[in-house]
């Protein structure tokens, strides 16, 4: 009794693997999002923030208030800051959100946020570094009593301050399509 075995040619197997991996990677925003795409493409920024889905009940009251970054924005003050100061302020706020969300068990539903991705992108922002240390202003904080308050502050940071910072970087670093 002869057993019939059929093997696909090696080239066919490689093609199949490429198709499978390509199909998977196009559905993962982290795989093809580069920092320069983030700074130069407002659609890429919007897609990254829109993709952040959290399954939280915004009205849930926290067991005790949490200290979170206050991300209120005074446009006159913001415009007078250097890019390094803006970068430091945003990075510090992201780090505080990361700390709060990871240390507060009642905020576990927010752990799907891409805070660490934003931290890497902001750290690698294409700004001219000078030898002067920007004056450090302590991070303004406020208390959050509900999951909704924490989430709203985080969204404000991403949609306002980070977006304004990106617009500043676009002016100096991104090639315009003609």
Can you tell me about this structure?
There is one protein chain. Helix 4 packs antiparallel against helix 8 and helix 6 runs antiparallel to helix 8. It is globular and about 45 Å long. Helix content is 54%, strand content 8%. With 178 residues, the protein is mainly alpha-helical. It has one domain: Growth Hormone, Chain: A (Up-down Bundle). The termini are far apart. Strands 1-2 form a two-stranded antiparallel sheet.
Keyword list:
single chain; Growth Hormone, Chain: A; mainly alpha; 8 helices; 178 residues; two-stranded antiparallel ribbon; 2 strands
Structural class: mainly alpha
Helix content: 40-55%
Taking all Cα atoms into account, the compactness measure Rg is: 22 Å
Number of helices: 8
Overall tally of structural domains = 1
Tell me, what's the shape? globular
The CATH topology: Growth Hormone, Chain: A
List the helices and strands and how they pair.
Blueprint lengths: L9 H16 L3 H4 L2 H6 L1 H9 L10 E9 L5 H5 L3 H21 L11 H9 L17 E6 H27 L5
Antiparallel strand pairs: 1-2
């Amino acid at each position: 009794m002869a057993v019939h075995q059929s093997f696909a040619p090696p080239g066919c197997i490689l093609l199949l693997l490429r198709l499978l991996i390509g199909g998977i990677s196009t559905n993962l925003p982290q795989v093809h999002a580069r920092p320069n795409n983030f700074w130069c493409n407002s659609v890429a920024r919007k897609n990254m923030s829109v993709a952040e889905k959290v399954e939280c009940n915004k009205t849930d009251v926290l067991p005790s208030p949490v200290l979170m970054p206050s991300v209120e924005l005074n446009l006159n003050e913001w415009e007078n800051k250097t890019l390094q100061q803006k970068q430091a302020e945003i990075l510090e706020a992201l780090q505080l959100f990361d700390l709060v969300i990871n240390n507060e068990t009642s905020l576990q539903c927010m752990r799907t946020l891409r805070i660490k991705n934003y931290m890497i992108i902001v750290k690698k922002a294409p700004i001219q570094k000078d030898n002067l240390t920007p004056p450090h202003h302590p991070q303004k904080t406020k208390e959050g009593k509900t999951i909704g308050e924490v989430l709203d502050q985080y969204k404000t940071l991403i949609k306002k301050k980070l977006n304004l910072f990106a617009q500043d970087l676009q002016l100096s670093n991104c090639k315009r399509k003609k």
